[in-house]
Amino acid sequence: MDADRIKNSLQSVLGESPVWLNNKLYYIDIKGGKIHSYNNNFGTIDLKEMITFIVPCNDNIVFSTKNSIKYMDLNTKKVKNLFTMNLQDGVRFNDGKCDVNGVLFAGTMDMKEKNNIASLYKFDKNVNEVLNKITISNGTIWNKDYDKMYYIDSPTKKIRVFSYDRNNSNIISEETGIDVSFSPGVPDGMTVDSMDNLYVCFFGGSHVLNFDRNGKLIKEIKVGSKNVSSCVFGGDDLKTLYITTAMDENGNGGYLYKYENNIEGTESMEFKFL
């Protein structure tokens, strides 16, 4: 099963963080400092600074820089600062998603990708550290009932599984994880469908792997780029899996792909504490 490269797809240095908002796909180029949009045609907002993830908010977006989280009105392009973090040298934001209550979970990473000096934080009206001793925070997602949370620290090649208190947006306890060390590359972004199946992108692995809720491999979706970074469901029926990629060491890749799935996905949750 192969994903299709979208015609006239823009090439990103490090494509990431796709979200489906108002019948349009938004995604970013982290190193290019750009927010791209796609719905038959491509558009771009150039922020001229590193941007590491986006989430929906009030029909607009919340985005992160190296050390801050901001709100942007997509019509006026006006930006409002929400949080500024005092991160240690060599650490930056990397990935983030919101739960069903609109609480944002955003993680950081060691920019050298070697040391476990990063963390996962929870943002509502306040900021709280949730997990620490992380190297590259990635892939946070929940099952459809929001009683399980999945999380990736990429170099560990493991998907961590937590029981989750959806009423209070809290991790309860850690369960048995899913070992994905058999795959080439490292696990990166992921999403879940309406049947609680996981879709996990592998940076350096040229594919998205689809697992059931028990961690059993269902299928492989091959992608024509080495560095597969993240994915999200979109389209009128939420059955189109959009897949972002990054350039490899030879300058290949970085394009947007799609895969027509037989099961609908879940919506991109928005931040509700503006």
| Highest-level CATH class | Mainly Beta
Oligomeric assembly: single chain
When the domains are counted, the total is 1
Broad shape: globular
**DSSP helix count?**
0
The largest β sheet comes out as: 4 strands, antiparallel
Task: Please bin the fraction of helical residues.
Answer: under 10%
Number of strands: 24
Q: Judging by the overall fold, what is the CATH architecture? A: 6 Propeller
CATH level-four homologous superfamily name: TolB, C-terminal domain
Describe this structure as you would to a colleague:
- The chain is an all-beta fold and 274 residues long.
- The chain has one domain (4-260): Neuraminidase (6 Propeller), CATH 2.120.10.
- It contains no helices and 24 strands.
- The protein has strands at 4-5, 15-21, 24-29, 34-39, 41-46, 53-57, 60-64, 68-72, 79-84, 91-98, 104-110, 118-123, 127-134, 137-142, 148-153, 158-165, 170-179, 186-192, 198-203, 207-211, 217-222, 227-234, 240-246, 257-260.
- The strands form six sheets. It has a four-stranded antiparallel β-sheet, with no helix packed on it. A four-stranded antiparallel β-sheet has the order 2-3-4-5, with no helix packed on it.
- A hairpin with a 7-residue loop joins strand 11 (104-110) and strand 12 (118-123).
- It is globular, with a radius of gyration of 17 Å.
- The model has no long low-confidence stretch (mean pLDDT 97).
